[in-house]
């Protein structure tokens, strides 16, 4: 029975990570080569059009642009806050993991219950949460700077520099949110490798609906641009 638990950990967990990493590698490739197929690429094109509106010196459009950044800024602040709370909860839970593994997680479907595996479970989830906090914090800083530069670049700075700061903020916010999403299956690893595999599949399917534009919507966008 112990061997079955070890086999499940050594097969399903790496397979889950391969699915998640492979999906995000495909997403990065699509954003770079076919941005119109992804929501991030389309939003980047819209943000570029914001710069053209800002260069016209319309104060109303400037205010609309700043308000449009508020959702992403609040999302980054929320993720940075919640990751610290979850990481603290994991640290407290890990103190009781060694005693709970023999009394609660006794089935073979919970995988291996060795000391090294227990440490790896909580360490990997904690690492993703810390990285999510780091990137979300950097996103907050860049978005706040971009918020200020959008109202002053007409006199002192060019839009190219402002757009660079803005895109870095949105990119770091996306990376921070994705590290947080990846940490969810890793936190479920305490319930066994089967839950990690199922959670990874569900996460990839859910993210695909948000990241990629459907063919019908993409056709409508192309018709409008023409």
Question: What's the arrangement of secondary structure elements?
Answer:
Blueprint: H1 2-33, H2 39-55, H3 59-68, H4 70-95, H5 97-103, H6 115-149, H7 159-187, H8 193-211, H9 215-225
The profile of the biggest β sheet is: none
Q: Compute the gyration radius: what is it?
A: 22 Å
| Class of secondary structure makeup | mainly alpha
Helical region count? 9
Keywords: Membrane, Transmembrane, Transmembrane helix
Protein name: PGG domain-containing protein
What does this structure look like?
This is PGG domain-containing protein. Keywords: Membrane, Transmembrane, Transmembrane helix. With 226 residues, the chain is mostly helical. It has one domain. Helices cover 82% and strands 0% of the residues. It is built from nine helices and no strands. The longest helix is centred in the middle third of the chain and has 35 residues. The chain is globular. The C terminus is likely disordered.
Give me a quick take on this structure.
This protein is mostly helical and 226 residues long.
């Amino acid at each position: 029975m112990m061997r079955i638990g070890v086999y499940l950990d050594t097969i399903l967990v790496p397979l889950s990570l391969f699915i998640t990493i492979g999906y995000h590698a495909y997403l990065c490739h699509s954003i770079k080569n076919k941005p119109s197929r992804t929501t991030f690429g389309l939003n980047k094109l819209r943000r570029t059009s914001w710069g053209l509106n800002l260069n016209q010196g319309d104060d109303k459009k400037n205010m609309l642009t700043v308000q449009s950044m508020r959702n992403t800024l609040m999302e980054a602040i929320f993720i940075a806050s919640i990751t610290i709370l979850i990481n603290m909860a994991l640290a407290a839970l890990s103190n009781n993991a060694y005693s709970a593994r023999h009394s609660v997680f006794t089935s073979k479907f919970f995988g291996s219950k060795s000391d090294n595996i227990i440490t790896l479970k909580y360490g990997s989830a904690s690492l993703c949460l810390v990285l999510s906090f780091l990137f979300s914090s950097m996103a907050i800083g860049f978005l706040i700077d971009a918020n200020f530069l959008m109202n002053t670049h007409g006199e002192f700075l060019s839009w190219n520099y402002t757009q660079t700061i803005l895109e870095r903020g949105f990119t770091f916010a996306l990376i921070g949110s994705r590290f947080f999403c990846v940490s969810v299956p890793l936190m479920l690893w305490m319930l066994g490798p089967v839950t990690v595999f199922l959670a990874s599949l569900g996460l990839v399917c859910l993210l695909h609906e948000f990241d990629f534009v459907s063919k019908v919507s993409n056709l409508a966008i192309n018709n409008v641009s023409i």
